[in-house]
Amino acid sequence: MPINMTKDRPNVNSRRIINGADSDVVQLHPMKHTFAWDAYLAGNANHWLPTEIAMQDDIELWKSPRLSEDERLAFKTALGFFTTADSIAANNIVLALYEHITSPECRMYLLRQGFEEAIHTHAYQYIVESLGLDGGEIFNMYRENTAHNSKANFILTFNEGVFADDFHTGTFESDQKFLENLCVFSLILEGIFFYSSFAVIFGFQRQNKLVGSAEQIQYIMRDESQHLNFGINMINTIKEEQPELWDDAFQKRTIKLVKEAAKLEYEYAREVFPKGIFGMNADGFKQYIEYIADRRLSAVGLPKQFKVKNPFPWMSEAVDISKEKNFFETRVTEYQTGGTLDWN
Ligand code: FE
Fold first, then answer.
1. Which of the two residues, 21 and 274, has the higher pLDDT score?
2. Torsion sign over Cα 96, 234, 114, 153
3. Band of the pLDDT at 162, cuts 50, 70, 90?
4. How far is the centre of ligand 1, averaged over its atoms, from the C-alpha of 86 (Å)?
5. What is the pTM for the complete model shown?
6. What is the residue-wise DSSP string for 124-190?
7. Residue 319: what pLDDT?
8. Neighbours of ion ligand 1 (CB under 5 A)
9. How far is residue 168's CA from residue 103's CA, in Å, rounded to a whole number?
């Protein structure tokens, strides 16, 4: 469709996360969803690359007999899950969300977010290569391992409708379908399904084992918590812009999905870490996942379902610590001064 010539400028009030005026999509101004711009700036300030992290200690440790078979298996299992999850996330951003989101500032962040998912996949590839793991074993785990497969299929079920060529927002049903995809993608895939694997990796870090890989995952977790915040902000803004979508039935369905996902996640933890690891046992994982699930529900204004304490309080520190790390500050400085380099 050709763009009509006009001196009328877009009205900020016509901006919507979905179903905004067509002519708005191309220009960033005037910005309404400033949370998206803030997320974009935060993402840039947090920029990192896998190859910046030293892997020598991990390589030596992996070759040595100092890691038990259970530890090796737990590490590979968590890594296997991450590889699938980040690729599914990237596809959902590019093939489902980007097309239907009509806020240019949100699209701007989605571009950054998509790149970050690629960096995460790069990190897994880099870990596989550094440690000399069998890439086929790690990347194909979602086809070979039931617990991985169930989680991937749970997510993919909600992609189907929104990925279809003839899917359009603009009706009550399709808008709810889109919002459901967003809830499953943000609250469940990015907000729940990563977390028992994160816990396992930080278990290694707390033992001072595989610290390079753990550091990679720490940066990934920080990116992911930003992705999650952005998703929550979009959900809450759609609720304000189209309150009719967030009806009683939708809320009940969302709670049901989060409870189902929490169950899938702790079943995954029980199946892949049957003997527990680093003092984290099946009950601990279950309670941790329930605690996380309640946080995701509260973030979008839904009632907590489990009301349990966080059994792994050091997990919140794993996110906070990374913000203060010297390593990271060094990188930030480098990127920020990058533009003033003398190219001669
Ligand atoms: Fe993500």
1. 274
2. negative
3. confident
4. 7
5. 0.91
6. HHHHHHHHT--HHHHHTHHHH-HHHHHHHHHHHHHHHHHHSTT--S-SHHHHHHHHHHHHIIIIIII
7. 65
8. 89, 190, 224, 227
9. 16
Q: Please give the CATH number for the structural domain made up of 53-329.
A: 1.10.620.20
Cα 306 to middle of ligand 1, angstroms? 25
Q: What is the pLDDT of residues 293-343, one digit of tens each?
A: 999 999 999 999 999 999 998 887 776 544 444 444 444 434 443 333 333
**Residue 51 exposure: Cα atoms within 13 Å on the Cβ side:** 1
Domain boundaries, the chain: 53-329
What distance in angstroms lies between residue 110's CA and the mean position of ligand 1's atoms? 10
Tracing tokens 């920080």 back to the chain, one arrives at: 222
- Report helix, strand or coil for 277: strand
What value does the mean pLDDT take over residues 166-174?
95
Cα 129 to Cα 140: distance, rounded to the nearest angstrom? 16
CA of 249 to the centre of ligand 1 (A): 28
Do residues 60 and 212 lie in contact, with contact meaning Cβ atoms separated by under 8 Å?
no
| Residues involved in catalysis | 126
pLDDT of residue 152 exceeding 50: yes
Token pair of 46 as six digits: 């947090």
CB 158 within 8 A of CB 185: yes
Strand partners, 280: 277
Q: Is 101 helix (H, G, I), strand (E, B) or coil?
A: strand
Token pair listed for 72: 């090796």
Asked whether 119 and 33 are in contact (CB, 8 A), the reply is no
Unique residue bearing structure tokens 């918590």: 225
Read off the tokens for 144: 């070979």
User: How far, CA to CA in Å, does 277 sit from each of 1, 71, 173?
Assistant: 58, 8, 44
State the distance from the centre of ligand 1 to the C-alpha of 88, rounded, in angstroms.
9
pLDDT at 119 over 50: yes
| 174-188, 255-269, 326-340: the lowest-pLDDT one | 326-340
